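Hello,

Our lab assistant flagged a job as stuck in the queue for most of the afternoon. It eventually completed. Since we weren't sure the result was trustworthy after the delay, we are filing this so someone can double-check. Below is the sequence as submitted and the structure that was eventually returned. Let us know if re-running is recommended.
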Amino acid sequence: MFIPRASNPGLAALLTVLAAALLAGTTLLAKALGTDTLGPPLHPLQISHGRFLFALLAISVTVALVRPRFTRPDLRTHVKRSGLGWGGVTLMFAAAAYIPLSDATAISFLNPVLGMILAIPLLGERVGPVRWAAAVIALTGAAILIRPGSGVVETGALLALGAALCLGAELIFLKRLSGREGPWQILLVNNAIGLSIATLAVIWVWAPPTPAQWAALAALGVLMALAQMAFVNAMARGDASYVAPFFYTALIFAGLYDGLVFGVWPDITSITGAAVILCGAGLLIWREGRRRRVPVT
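-- returned structure --
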């Protein structure tokens, strides 16, 4: 895969939908690994270790073929970003074993909203009434999906909410890196540091995977790498405000995968909560798109 300079909105949309389908596939595999589908359930720390291990291998091979130009990396920012990303991925994989994939995916769409809120103290950004309204709407949807008082589902939803918080904070540091370093360099360094963190964490919970689990771990890592590559290429061909809505098709793929493989279909609460979150996130994307189109005087 390569990154041309010419804008191509149609291809950008197609690549974003592909990234969404691949990312939903990773949560499906995480659910299979975290339950007894392929053998004794693996700990989420071990699943995230496999994700970073095989994703790094796939990205390293791609970088060797593409040969992008590297610059001096901002390691301090990379470590902060990778630590938050590792935490978010691990919590997301843990949540996938407890709740429907559509719920976990919908809650993960709080990332840009939480990132916006965290940008206020961390980046000194100003937030207007429209962006605050988007945050309130999205968080209301998350409250619906948490289903207070419903036991196991509540636990899984809270894990997904923690994942969204980590990944939202990760966006802050990704913003700092994206203007200074190339996308391939960011991907490679992120996965290398993430693997280092995951390796230290997995020592305490490591269990020998079954052959089927090894295959699933490898597939999870490769799918994650392909999703990242597809999204990087999509962002190179279209504006972020245009590309982002297409990524919400991950919710459709997650619900479809969960229903076909595990027989778990979204109920009315899941559909309502997801719709409310999408409304809030969509409003935020619309507002960001309009703000970027305002001419500078």
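-- support follow-up --
The delay was a queue issue, not a problem with the job. The result is valid. The chain has one domain: 9-293. The mean pLDDT is 83.
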